[in-house]
Design goal:
Blueprint lengths: L5 H30 L4 H16 L3 H13 L2 H37 L15 H55 L5 H33 L7 E4 H11 L1 H6 L3 E6 L3 E4 L1 H18 L5 E9 L2 E8 L6 H6 L21 H11 L3 E6 L4 E8 L3
Parallel strand pairs: 2-4
Antiparallel strand pairs: 1-3, 4-5, 5-7, 6-7
Helix pairs in contact: 1-4, 2-3, 4-5, 5-6, 7-9, 9-11
Length: 374
Amino acid sequence: MKNDYRKLKVRILVQIMATILLTGVAEIFLCTVFVDGVFQRLFADAVVRFFQGVFSMSENQAIYFYQQFFVFHKAEILIVTYFILLMFSLSLVLTRVVRYFDQISRGVDQLLVDSEQPIILKPELSSMQIKLNKVKSVLIERKRSAAESEQRKNDLVVYLAHDLKTPLTSVIGYLSLLQEADDLPTVQRKKYTTISLNKALRLEDLINEFFEITRFNLQNIELEQNKINISLMLNQLADEFYPILEHKNMSALVQSDDLVIRGDANKLARVFNNLLKNAVTYGYEDSIIEISAKKRDESIDISFKNKGDKISGQQLNHIFEKFYRLDSARSSHTGGTGLGLAIAQKIVEQHQGTIKASSSEDFTEFVVSLPQKS
């Protein structure tokens, strides 16, 4: 870092030293050529004529003043002349230095320009050029990510609004049939009632997804630190998911030592709930979801592993972004808001932990690493 501007410092130093040297050479030239050299007589005559013409002096008076100012005080006059020349020369050097600041200022202005053209500065400012281009790349990437996230959010709202209308229309339709036909057979009445209930439950899920979006954007997650038995929490979670697993003929196998950490039990339960729900959604039917918790050094790793389609590297790079969903062809039955993993990552990071995803042809795995605190 200390040598970032070495070229610039060397160039400025060279310019200053050259200015001092050239000013000294110019002063010596004036002294040896005009004051004490070849042009001394011409210089003296010019000064005398100047006094005669400007101040209306006689020749003797002009010669007297020339001797008083230029002969008897020659050393002082040369010193003053040298410093005047030096100040003038240094001002020119400073003007060139200020141009570097102008270049940097223009480079900073280009950060605000909506263009991917690189910022180009003088070679002496190569270090600043690299930094400005890095900042510009980060700003462009953030802008692109924000635009993509906003677009996914807008698309999601449109999809959810459409999906709200579909089950609502069905509920109204079947309830209207139940109201209008008093003599419906019991079996048919039960069928319509069941359909209406299922559609109403789907409506509830969609409304909860809307609230999920609002909560994620507006709330600050605050943690309540308590001791948590990870093994107990994971087993309870697997039991709660039994009906959902049974529906796909899946099972959850929990393997965990008796491990205890400090953290927010409700928030971490939400993390593990999202990961297990994700494993069920994208896992193959008739498969086993492996859940494990192991101690490693000063942390505890909680893993959720399921058999399913391989997630590509590009998808893994975006999997924890808000509103990002793996299923490209959206299913109104399985598609979520795309917030589950984003929320999970935020909660884990607030616990000073990390969450990572990996995928192969054989399985997909999410690993949460949490610090083990006493």
